[in-house]
Queue: 4 jobs
Job 1
Amino acid sequence: MFGKRFTFPGGIKPKSYKELTKNCPIESLPEPKSVLVFFHQVIPTGSSAVPIVKPGDKVKKGEKIGAGEGKISSPVHSPISGIVREIKEFPHPVLGRKSLGCLIENLGDGETALLPENLSPWEKIREAGIVGMGGAAFPTYLKLNPPKPVDTLIINGCECEPYLTGDFRVMVEYPEEVLLGAKVMAEILKAKKVIIAIEEDRKEAIESIGSKIKSQNSEIKFQLVISHAKYPLGGEKQLIKATLKREVPSGKIPYEVGVCVQNVQTTFAVYEAVFCNKPLYERVVTVSGDGINKPKNLRVKIGTEIKEIIDFCGGMKDGVEKIIFGGPLMGIAVPSPSTPTLKATTGILLFTRKKEEPARDCIRCGRCVSVCPMHLLPSILYQMIKNEEFAKAKEEGLLDCIECGCCAYTCPAKIGLVESFKMAKAYGK
Amino acid sequence: MENKITVSFSPHIRDRVNVEYLMFSVVVALIPALIGSVYFFGIRALIIIILSSLSSLLFEGLAQKAFGRKITIGDGSALITGLLLAFNLPPNVPYFIPIIGSAFAIIIVKQFFGGLGYNFINPALAARAFLVVSWPSFMTKGFLPPRFGSLSGIDGITQATPLTLLKDTRLMNPTAYPKLVSQFSSLPVLKNLFFGSVGGSLGETSAFLLLLGGVFLLINRVIDYRIPLSYLATVFFISLFHKIFFQNAVSPLFHLFSGGLILGAFFMATDYVTIPITPKGRVIFGIGCGILTMLIRLFGGYPEGVCYSILFMNVLTPFIERYTKPRIYGR
Ligand code: SF4
Ligand code: SF4
């Protein structure tokens, strides 16, 4: 219907399981009794926000509780109105260490604080504490202040990880808002073109965005791009390659080729910040997996304990063994049901126990090579890391690995390829 | 909520394809040709296949025990070696041949180098080459004409394979050669060659039955299409040019369907362990096999070149791999 499909070399096509939640309209989770909001909501290498409230303070919903200070940081707001009970170090689900968090008890008086009116759109995005909501959590205002001119803004609606449908539902239910958010960002970037990329099997999203694009009349050219459904198309570098045939140089970021990529929910948050003066304190999360009774798409306040979310979804089934933040291919397994959600939590997946096969020696089948979207040789990298030849591994592209997991997914010998790459990267630092 | 929660690295899902799946797919793909060999050469073929397979499994287990490795005879790889070795033997070899061959393939070529994943040449082919050198008379003259379902086959009179006949005639009886060439390029002979009504090794006679298995492996993505395609295409084009530029050259189809080329291209030149891991490297590997096969067939001393071509390319694999690394995205 919309012409040619876009794609990139490599990648995998795992079963999507999206039908579990695809037709579940976004529901709002009732306000939680309390939230634990981490001040560190940006990428691991970024810096934590600095608390500007103290225990005993009353805060309104949307009130700033942490100031974004430091090079890569972003402010944090209270998702509920209530009283600050504790500010101390809690185990952070993504950082893998303790980090400063703010425990707020809900007083339920529902008063809301908005962003200051007199700010420019870019300042509103910064003040709203928006970060990349596809999982990367890079501060959006920084991404919108590129050191080089950008000609194309890509809205990443690919959501290529299995199970996740939050971005899909936002596109189906709020197409106009997404396009408005995209337009604001394109204006800030002075980009001439906006590409909205959606995978071919998301029919409803293609239709809803497609019909709204036609009625756009602006200087900026909007284009709907339909891609093959393949993982990891949602990876920035793969998306840029597929849609524009441009390759981001090794070790560089998309500005280098004049592109900025933004996630759908980030775009929606930009709309809310700029047009409604609403800070980022809630987001849509897909709750799914074979361990949950009623899979759903939920609008959840940042900092809600996953226990509450699970209860709202009919509770978990017997034998749940893993709880994952994000998708099954790149998501992070969290240690406990009392873990709070973050701004970048795209999904909460519950998996029951499956027999895991032990790893064995590489049989050199080359399957990992043929699926690696970065054109690395995972089996050979793995061998080098095993021999502790880190310098050689770097030479062979260790740092180019995007940790997409395609190689480990496909390896018949069940070798922990990505695991070893992650550890080698951390070790090599 | 009292569940025990596991924290582990991503990815949290894995493809269902494992080593057994791949190996047993190959075993399944060999079944048509296996049935064919029993149909063509009788119960003797079955005995050779069983001897070769069982002794491969046995030697694998024994060697793994001796080296203190995990016993993995269930993974299917030793079974494949046993089957492929049998497929490479003439039907009339004495029964100790498959056993000695298996011992050589599994103990020397595979387990001495570390087992599955570490051997650098194809065990079945190495064993065949070893047997040809050690017992040349059994290995080059043990060919029987197909008997089509008659169970005996034991008292058969040995017969040359089409490739042997072609080579011998060219060298020894040049006057009869042109006639043989035109006969071998005729449709009925090509048909016999394709379906397996001519003498040959146990598993190589019927190109058709091997192709059935090969296509099954391609569809299931068990093997990479690059190698059979580049191998067969190279043989086809070289024999086509040969036919165009020389009188007295057999049809390219004769080269494609004779002498275990199909067996080699689909089942032995695709042996993961001994071929390049890079996509480009695999194409080069296939082309190399094709060129060598044709050089040996047209100019060499042996009538048949598949086995030695693949073995030679196996040795080159590390070099090919080194020079065919894909360009990393963004570099
Ligand atoms: S090596 Fe890295 S980039 Fe390549 S498939 Fe594996 S995880 Fe993905
Ligand atoms: S997929 Fe696994 S077994 Fe195959 S080559 Fe890669 S690491 Fe080795």
Job 2
Amino acid sequence: MRSFSVIDFVSLVAALRWTVLLVVLALAFGAPLALGLATGRVSCFAPLRWAMAAIIQVIQSVPLLGLLFFFYFGMPVFLGIQVPAIIAVTVAYTLYTAAFLGEIWRGGLEAVKLAQWEAGSCLGLSLWQQFRHIIAPQALRLSLPPTVGFLVQLIKGTSLASIVGFVELARAGQVVSAATFQPLLTYALVAAIYFALCLPLTLWSRSLEARLDGSR
Amino acid sequence: MNFLPLWRYQNQLIDGAFVTLELTVVAALFGILIGIAGAVALKGRIAALRWLVRGYIELFRNTPSLIQIFIVFFVLPTFGLKLPAFEAACVALSLYFGAYSVEIIRSGLDSIPRSQVEAGQCLGLSGWQVFRHIVLPPALRNAYPAVTSQFVLLLLGTSLASQVAADELFHVAGFIESRTYRSFEVYAVICAVYFAMAMSFKALFALVGAAAFRWPRRR
């Protein structure tokens, strides 16, 4: 046992980069998938809609912790080879991000009235042009606030990677707390760091919501 | 892949599922109470109380639930308040759920246009009657989808209680894993159980919503 020192603080801040890395990886792989899910959910082809809806339902109805463990222990079983933890964790966060962002973006796409597509086609625009120039900008405007809001969920969610042995912020907190026997100070600091990361995003999301109010 | 060794642990799984449900329901009830109290305070005239509730909401919505559970379980004992794992998880999850409930309930109440309240007053209804007959039914109807989806997220979030060894479903999974060494199979089964519970609640809420509010069907 030793007392809490600058080194402990540094180790917490250093662990933060893993938290950030996980968020970046989840977004980098999850966002394109989410776009696919969202467009699939609004497609004219019913079986595709159902399939996408089923995928989203399954992922959203399982705890994130469950997803992490499923892939952490499952990847070697599926693939027959040992994979590094980061890959299993990234797969889990990617699917989590894809499912939630997919639903958010679908909401944005559906909120743009069908008549807008028709107006575009009357102007002789191709389906892609309609999407690109008419639908997507409006849908983006509508779904930006909840997207930023989801980012907060994702940052908080990365704390679960600690449980499969990933030394990110939450895990570093546990380690420091155990070493210094000062849970109050340590966890307050960890919470404060998460808070400092998330609060600006929450406030940003709220101001976006006020500014880009879709009902006007 | 071999699921057979798990068969003899079905009783533990069922017990774990019940603890998970218990945790969810208790945290949801206390969370809703906090939500109502908080929404009333936000609507109230006492500025200090409004700030206090705002601070509570921001604090609990912008920090991970896992850390909140750790703080209740590991930090409160240093103040002489030692809670068992289940109770600690209840407290932390109630506060977490409460922070979201305040906003949901407040926005439900806010969704009623001021003019409707005035219309009620013009008809000579008392303050309570206006609330009971004009504000409450549509407010409930508007808040219902958000409350129920938050409830399902809470159900899934109770899995974090396993990290302080509350004996809910996910903790049971760890126990079975340590006995059988069938990690993947155990967590696949656990995920399926959570999935079944979440889907049942979603279906139940959809039915109740349709019956209670005569939901206009989408599309």
Job 3
Amino acid sequence: MKRTLALLSLTALLASPALAQSGELRLIAQASEQGNPTMQALVNAFMKKYPNVKVRTEFFPIGTGYPQVLRTQLQGGNAPDLFYVTAGSGGQVSVLPFLDAGYVADLSKRPWAKTVIPTASRGLYWKGNQLAAVPLGMTPIAAVYNADLLGQLGVSIPRTMPELLKTCQVIRSKGKSMFALAGANPQNAGLLAATLAENYVLGSDPQWNAKRAAGKVTFAGTAGWKKALQTLLDMQKAGCFIPGVEGADLPQAAPAMASGQALAFVIPTGAISALKSINPKLNLGAFVLPGPTAASTVLAVSPTDAIAVSKNSKNLPAALAFADFIATGGGSELYTKATGDISTQQAATGKNLPPELAGIAPALTRKNRVFPLIQIEWSNPQVYTTLGEGVQGLLTGQLTVDALLARMDAAWNRK
Amino acid sequence: MTSQNSRNVLGVVRPSGERKRPNPPRHVPPWAWAVPAVLLVFLARYVAAVAGGWYAFTDWNGLTPTANFTGLANFRQIFTDEGARGALLNTVKFAACFVVLTNLVGLFLAVALNQHLKTRYLLRTVFFAPVVMSQLATAFIWRFLFDYSGPVNGVLGALGLESLKKTWLANPTWSFWAVVVVLVWQFSGLAMVILLAGLQGIPQEVEEAAEIDGASSWQRLVRVTLPLLAPALAISIQLSVISGLAIFDTVMALTNGGPLGATETLATQVYKQTFVFGRYGYGTALALLLTILIVAAALIQQLTTRATERRNA
């Protein structure tokens, strides 16, 4: 009898999903100078839940290092079982081109496939009836600010762009800057321009990306784009940015904010943990980068970080279990809590946000005023890089707004 | 006990148990040992390079299993694209400045440190040290020096020259010269070593004879030293032409090709187009163009040197 009971218990244990999967997986992702502790924590939590599965992680430098390694491994037939991707098609590791090339497993049959991605972002992960990746969380783009410095400067958070320009002048007169910006870094410079475009382009025409893809509109022919980039020049004129902004890269811009030289930094809120690693004493808050009026201001929030499963994984059941763990097993919550990103639930309700993001809670729930990042639906990574490099050109006076927009149209049409 | 060992003609003791190694068969040519290595180098370098060159005529994106043949489309695009033409022009400008300035500074250092200074060995080491340092690491240090809040502007400010403070690496004009300064600082030491070796090969008697004949220092340098230094100078120039056309690390780390392409070179464009934008076909076409440019420049320089040597002979 005892023996029968023992056998029954063992059978029940082995039938549980955590023990049914076994073997080894390899996951690759990007990392900063400090590594990628958040991803490693996610992997450790998975291995704790699935003790029979060992996940080996390999991290490569953020920027061009990781995309290069990923493409080489996929192309060279040495694909990892799981790999970090971003949504859509406009970035260097955007997942849809990998789906087109046949490198990622279709996740559309997973039980969570129909529910885990917000409807507005569906096109960033789905192509036809195929689901390319599982999102790790949602990323709002906001002006993350130093709350203590705000009090010291005696200014209040601007709600409209005219207010923001005046606040910049006040802050400059006190020897500080409103914004840290890495003007020489195409990714960061492009992000500010893209966030302005959320307000000035998507705010008035939410279907603009679809129209651009259909060839019905152009960058150069869109008044909203001209206004967005002109606003960036107005911000420069009003002294909104740190001195030498056009030559600053992230190693100059991030410390400027963390050390109190600049009040705020327009970044994905997932980068809050990186700012705190520079100065753990920072008391941070966040506000939405304002549009021309408070009513027209929109917020960029979309799932960006994600994990794709390799189509040729030698241990597909375990790899799929990892995707399930992210979607419904607590992985997404763990990841977003550590990074400063938010879960789809938090994004939809604006509730239970980290304290730093309390300032953007009302904006999260405004109907029809929340959009995915404008650039992640673009045709190729060169369009966004052209925008980012062009911002530096605008700041140095090498380029006019019209010339930059014409360049972006040319990059869009490039194959 | 009788010794079992034997001694050969060179006096080397060979144990009795060791057999004399048989001579290789006479029909194997003496260069045969090199064949595997030559074959490997040929396959790994030349065949791979030529095979890779084929992608210059395709639209391959680095992901799809197949590549479409597009003929000369990539090359047409290079010469019609403003960014690529700018990169080509910058490459030539960088190479010209690099060749002239590194060799001039290298020559100055070589002549100066060929004198009987007590500290000459220490100074040679100091000036050569940057050559063996990582280009990336040194570029990041220079980036800090050139930063708007960095020491270069700090010194200018301290001297009361506020008006000269600049964002050196983001200024459309000065960023080019900032890169040149770093390159010359880093590679003049190599030219110095090559030219120093050349200088030490010049017989002392010739210099002394010129001095006895009343030649001034300048006349001795121009009329005696430089002509005798021509072979070393040719090597130094040839190396700097090749390096100057392929400048990559320093530019990437200092300016990333910016601002807005002001310091973009063909090598940085090859990297960006290929690995950042995934345009492998176009990137390979740029790389092929760069290769042709380097080979052509090296050949022209070689032919010019030979012609000069023949004239002088």
Job 4
Amino acid sequence: MIGPTHYVVLSALLFSIGLLGVLIKRNAVAVLICIELMLNAVNINLIAFSKYITPTDFIGQIFSIFVITVAAAEVGVGLAIIIAIYRNKLSVDLDEFDWLKW
Amino acid sequence: MVEFAMHNAWLVPLLPAVAFLIIVFLTRPWQKLSSLVCIAGMLGAFYFAALAAYGVFTNEEFTKNSLTYATRWFSMPGLQIDMGIQLDPVSAMMMFMVSLVSSLIFIYATGYMKGDPGYSTFFAYVSLFGASMLGLVLSSNLLQMFIFWELVGLCSYLLIGFFTHKISAREAAKKAFVTCRVADFGLLLGLLSIQIVFGTLNINELSQIIPNFREYTTEGILVLIAVLVFIGPIAKSGQFPLHVWLPDAMEGPTPVSALIHAATMVVAGVYLIGRTMFLFEHVPSVMHLVAVTGAFTALFAATIAVTQREIKKILAYSTVSQLGYMMLALGVGSLTASMFHLWTHAFFKALMFMGAGSVLVALHHKADVWEMGGLVKKMPITAWTFVIGGLAIAGIPPFAGFWSKDEILAVTLSGGHPILFAMAAFTAFLTAFYMWRLIFLAFFGEEKPENHAKESPWNMTIPLIILAIFATVGGLVGTPWNNLWAEWITFSGVHIHPHHGDPNYVVMLGSVVLAVAGIGLAYKLYLQDAQKAKAKELARRYQGLYTLLYNKYYIDEIYLWINHTLVDGSAKMFYLFDLYVVDGIVNGLGAFTKLSGDGLRIFQTGRLQNYVLVFFLGVLVIAVAMAFNNPLPASMVLGGVK
């Protein structure tokens, strides 16, 4: 029988994979994809808790739709930034994006 | 007209002040016009001053109550300051004398300053100088007087340093200014104390209040105030030990020396003490201090004058010495004698300074009296007027100086100061000696062939002649038999009255004998040609004393030494303190900031993923911390519900 624990473990694994990708991937597009993974892990969590704690209301589901919308916008902005950086640097390698350092 | 002048005495200082403004803003490019404006301003002032003085002297009323017009200058809670004009016999006498002598000096200056590039500027300055002095004399309020006092100091600074291309002139101007500033600080403290203790600075009110000073304060405070007030005149009137600026003030043009040393500036100090006599008369100890300072200064300066070689230096030390006489007279309580000497001294000293200026022009500024000689044939007017001045200062009757000096000697003796009397009498002898040494060396004896002197133009000799007349008859108003002076010159509100008994024939005869002896000694040492070597020989025999006197007791050197060791020394200490302690703290703060910045810089890699790592580690740490403290939200964060 699949219980909340399965969902939570799946979500935690997904989140950890995404986090690892964010931390170690050099390619900026890959990092963006990994951020999507982390967001989806959150969505799974939201829906799972909604289903088991408040089965009659759709609070978690609505929240996850919000998250998806925001994530779409975020990806749009993120890709635009990456393209802008690429035009300057001819590269999407995050290791080279250390301009913030003085 | 007399009435008008008396009730509008404010015109007297105003006219020269207006002349100053006109010259500065309008007529500066035209030299002749500027000097005319200046002389016209001062002659106008003299006209009104003479009329007003006539009105005051012919009206008995003013010996008791002064004629005062004052207006509120500013007021705030607890402090009301008036500004106004106070006319009484003393201020009338002073404004008459100042405007008369100044007019003559200005006329003389048109000849002396001829061809100087700063001609107009000079006349602007002297106008302001005259205006300040007249304002000082007529002030009805001590604060107002202090303002004019400072203005006089400013003008003296500008005029002493008039030849700005000469380093010595600039130094002398600085010295005069700084010395006077030091003392003026004391005076200012004194005035502030008066305001605090008595609540007013109005001279009339103070003269009413101070006799009952015990209702306000103690005797000790009054002594303190009197000493502080006295400090101002010590510098302004060239008393020991702050006399050092006065001989150096010779660096200015000669008319300025005459103006500073005879009519204005230096007598301001004497006048101030005379004005505040209602204060001094209640503190006998300070009066004694004034007397001792005066007598000592008189003797001290006279001994220096004996050995000096420069004609104006001799006159300068003679001024210091005569000012000492005036202080002595004030100190022994005789206002009239002091004011009388101030009056006669103004004439013969202005005369002698301008005579010296005439000589300097003729000899192209060769100032050493030993290099002069026989000038009487080439410049008879200068020489003979100078001789009259010499007779007056030496105290030969009936010339002006005799009567005033004699009166000072008499009051000193009758006031019960035998030691001060002896000092003053010896000074009289020295005065006759050094002044006639100057006259014999410069004007008589054999002519020096290398000097091509010729008499000065009329605009320089006419003032000399007029002053010579005053130096001859100016003292006759105060003879012991018919002392008009003592009747006229009284200060309202002062209670000590000069001891005017019978003429003291012993003192009179004695002072004449001393004067003649001084002149005789000078004649013997410096005129009889064969003996000229004797003077040098005497100087050789008493080499040490001579050098000491010639170098003015090394007072300047002592001040310099004090300056070097104390002032420069402490300055060095403070410099090191600043360098190591103050700068150390400031630099240390900077270094600390930079160092910590450098350290923190290492953590700022600029790489996105490093930041993310730190961020999540932070979240983790917070989560773990919460788990230990409050398990329920922590377990929610860590993703588990029970």
